[in-house]
Amino acid sequence: MSSSYKTQPVGFLGLGIMGNGMAARLVSESVAGTADRPLYVWNRSAEKCDTLKAKFPDANIVKVGTAKEVVASCGVTYSMLSTPEAAAAVFNASEGTLAGVSDGKAIVDCATLAEADHQGMSEAVNGKGGIYLEAPVSGSKGPAENGSLIFLCGGSKDLFDSIENDGLNVMGKASHFLGAEVGVGTQAKLVVNSVMGTMLSAFSEGIALSQALGLDGSKMVEVFGQGACAAPMFGLKGNKIVKEVADHATNFPLKHAHKDMLLAKDLAAKTGVEYKTNNMAESIFKRARESDLQLADLDFSAVFEQIHEDSKGSCDYSAKRQKK
């Protein structure tokens, strides 16, 4: 299996916030001379394919009109669609992903979906003689661009082994095979993202309290970074949050973070695990997602703005923040 895939074109579906960086990593590897296979690309907004081609004029990038054509032309096709709804629509379309699957065609879906979504797609692909690997990633826009994603995989171990070095590890810094049962990768990703969202919610509350007390937000970010609760995310997001005009440029949309926390909440309920801390943070993200502040499409660090909004009336926090 592995030798045949290494000689066939590679496909990529979805050039959004994450997919664009991931596809660029595969292209960069080809331009560097370590791989000479063409990369077939498709995106619902076709101009994003043109942008990728313009960025790498010396690369063998093939823009096609349908997801079906990508899959039919390639040995392995990676898919990174932004939402469960988009993933289902592209997968099931008459000219979509499944329509291109035949014996031996491999689909690697990197989106964060519900377990049932990945399981249903796996059954459909296998039913047509194809091979499926769920491979949701831990990481956002920056890690996608610099190749430091972490892949959490379930499904075909043979497929995982055949693409780990010249596919997954080109786009990421680590790849983990968690089991042959499709769904385990999703479970791991939802645990990670629910903890991440909970951490950011608690951190945002701490910064809000610090500023309400008149403490310097930037100094508090520095203090956090020097203590036992230091985390890379706190330094990265904190320095953007404490600006006089906060920077919530989208790396990981708040609406997607909330979706993952909600899915994790459901997983915990099914297994009987107390997940109260996540559930409380999820309710804050829910308010932020639905808020008139229009935070849903901003980075998930914008949950800080909801915490700020919730704090109005209980202190003179708003005025103090404007002085920072």
From TrEMBL:
Cited Gene3D superfamilies: N-(1-d-carboxylethyl)-l-norvaline Dehydrogenase, domain 2 (1.10.1040.10), NAD(P)-binding Rossmann-like Domain (3.40.50.720)
Protein name according to UniProt: 3-hydroxyisobutyrate dehydrogenase
UniProt GO MF annotations: NAD binding; NADP binding; oxidoreductase activity
One Pfam family linked to the record: NAD_binding_2
Domain annotation 3-hydroxyisobutyrate dehydrogenase-like NAD-binding: ranges: 183-304
PROSITE patterns found in the cross-reference section: 3_HYDROXYISOBUT_DH
UniProt key word Amino-acid biosynthesis: no
Record-annotated 6-phosphogluconate dehydrogenase NADP-binding domain positions: 10-173
The organism of origin for this protein: Triparma verrucosa
Keyword terms of this UniProt record: NAD, Oxidoreductase
SUPFAM superfamilies registered for this protein in UniProt: 6-phosphogluconate dehydrogenase C-terminal domain-like, NAD(P)-binding Rossmann-fold domains
Organism superkingdom: Eukaryota
Keyword presence, GTP-binding: no
Similarity remark: Belongs to the HIBADH-related family. NP60 subfamily.
Positions annotated as active site in the UniProt record: K189
PANTHER family: CYTOKINE-LIKE NUCLEAR FACTOR N-PAC, OXIDOREDUCTASE GLYR1-RELATED
